[in-house]
Amino acid sequence: MTGGAGNVAKATPTARIAYIMSRFPRLTETFIVSEMLAMERLGAEISIYPLLRERAELVQPGAAAMVRRARYLPFLSLPIIGSQLHFLRDARRRRRYLRAWLDVIRGTWRNPNFLVGGIGIFPKVAHAAREMAAAGVDHVHCHFATHPALAGFIVHRLVGIPYSFTGHGSDLHVDRTMLPAKVAEATFVVTISEDNRRLIEATCGPASIGRVEVIHCGVDPQAFHPVERPPGPRLRIVAVGTLHEVKGQAHLVDACRILADQDVAFTCRMIGDGPDRDRLAERIEGHGLSDRVQLAGRMTSDEVARALAEADVLVTPSVPTRSGKREGIPVVLMEAMAAGLPVVASRLSGIPELVEDGVSGHLVPPADPAALAAALERLAAEPELRARLGRAGREAVLRGFDSADNAAALHSRILESIDQRSAPGDGRGAARAVA
Fold first, then answer.
1. CATH number of domain containing 132
2. Which residues pair with 219 in a beta bridge?
3. 246: domain range?
């Protein structure tokens, strides 16, 4: 294959992979950007099809170039209408198109929110499917088991390109609409924890056993590296995440009140923004903690790395919400541990797969401010313990949560699936022939 300017030769990509995600670029989803960049370093040719454009003031440094490459499609346009007509003109394409519509409606009608979303994205996903087929896309990988995985399902049904998806946290715990169908159609399914694997297999039944693989999200250990943290007069606490009930910051504020009542010297920075900001501000003021607890707002990954370097402990007080939301394994835990920072986290979901209590961090029951305060008080009193937990935490990330290693595992799995379906002599699968 040759390039344009100067007829410069380009190496044949290991695979042409189209990524689908709900919104792009989301400040809180750095793991998707890291994964795509790692895939490109491994030789894959990546195209990006977000279902929605995220209008964000802050963009992660690595995402800026990808935003310019992303294929943002409107819900309806003349070209999109033309793609619907394309599928309706030919008898074989028409059957696939109408059957896909029927399966989406039949699979989502009990869930009005999912039904409306599915109907809304179908026309532009059909158009994207034509584009992917024309571009020679070998595989579609979707992040999140909800509408992105449904989009992969639609692409596969319309043009035959195989797909996989990664299930994370609340996308599995809150809404599993059509999950058995999406798992059954996928070439393989990835999830970020053994806890999630068990949930998928329990939902989808025996047929799903062996089809779900655990590939952890990860971080770049070079971007988050240990620094010297000499003991100071106060314990410097940091928490990073959207200000939302599922992140449990209200319980951290309550734990800070307990620490203050016990005359523990500390400061606490909560990095992030979200719907609970005003309620948290009122709670901080009501507890008389305005001089110790700061709502620091949103930060890029580089700014978060600096904040971690300036802290003594990271707290992720995650909780399950009344609506069923819960975290998988928060990436910020991996970032902090890679930076050699001790962590205090909730014993919840897949978090114990990363944090070993008493070895690489402290685990406490969710929604238990007293337990949080006790763990923080101990860390405030024992700098040697902080250093030991920090060293073990980094080792845990290097063993199983390095983003390059985990992207390589996904890349290898995609190549394996391409090789398995390739017809003799053509070097690629015949999936695009139906487009």
1. 3.40.50.2000
2. 402
3. 235-400
